[in-house]
Please model this.
Amino acid sequence: MVVIILGAIMALIATAPAMAHFRLNTNIRIFHIERLDDGLRVYLRKPTPLAFASYLAGTDSGSVEIKAPFVRSAVEEGQRVHYLDIEALRADPAGYGQLVSSGYKFTISGTQTPGEVEAVAIHPTALAPSFAELSDARRALQAGIYPAGADAVFVGDSVTDLQLFFPGASASAEIRIKALLPEGYEPDGYIANIFLDTVGNEKRITRAAGLMREEVVLNTSALTAARTFVDQGVWHILDGLDHVLFVLCLTIGAATFGALLWRVTGFTVGHTITLIAGFLGYTPSGSWFIPGIEAAIALSIIYAAAIALMRKTGAATAVPITVGIGLLHGFGFSFVLTDMLSLEAPHLLLSLISFNIGVEIGQVAIVLAVWPALYLLGRRWMKAQRFAVVAIASGAIALASYWTVQRVATLTDILIS
Model:
């Protein structure tokens, strides 16, 4: 089973580069609903690949040309890639706005209502402005269809913002939102949907997971908030391959269950501290910080894998180190949390606690999937257990080394620019 898990991880990595240009590199979709005296205004941020769902359905976008408007196809190093066509976007922003708008059905007070497209914008993910608050959303849509001077990027390396207006809708109207996705379109990755409904000075929050093929009804339930952020925490650690690899190496490097428990506890303490601190803004503001943390996380995987290979299992030295490494990973968790939650959001404390609980559930799931299998393998065939440990640790070192080179190069570019 352990070897199967490693194989699945390596298969995921092997397929990732081929899909990079249409991949959901950003997997959060945010809706701001502004209730006004003369109607409703909706601000939407989504991963750009979702706008091209009808063109992607049933295709392998990593190997075939996608003939879609506002997309430019090219062949680089023998591989088909797809960039945003910036000239086409600037020539017809209204057309792109209609394309994005056509992917959703809004039902207001029981009546399906088309929205008027007021503005649309695309941002390279690395340059995307904040969208956490209603004021942020307004600003993000004022800069035009695409940032001046920015180079074209892969479709998957961008987010799309849309502004819609529903004239005459009541400020107290019930709102239902559904994504109109074609059959055969199954994007990679887990999608989080956040709905922020502003009524006067009150902000209501609703959360849902997945593709929104079923209608989402806006509500204010604290239980819904808790359940959704637990889900977010679980899927964030399971979908974050660097976090999975670290926990995996932490698990295979522990000689006893007691040692494993101490290590996992240390990691938990560390990432809980910085997850909360990072979300609250107690972090350096320099552009070097995020790539620096990501590079350090990659190095932490190499360290944990090396410990497993060398069979250095002393719990007394492992706990302080795993606390320190947990501090690094906690910042990584906080980066995604700040995209989903603002300091003014309802149920803030409950959401923070729930997200951390979700991270723990995901972490425990990895441990429970690997440790019993490794233990039973060692009871029956010690050499096979050692082979599994060496295979997993060696694969993790190779992959994390590749990440380290990439991330250090990114960090170096930032520091010298």
Summary: The two ends are 46 Å apart (CA to CA). Residues 234-416 form one domain.
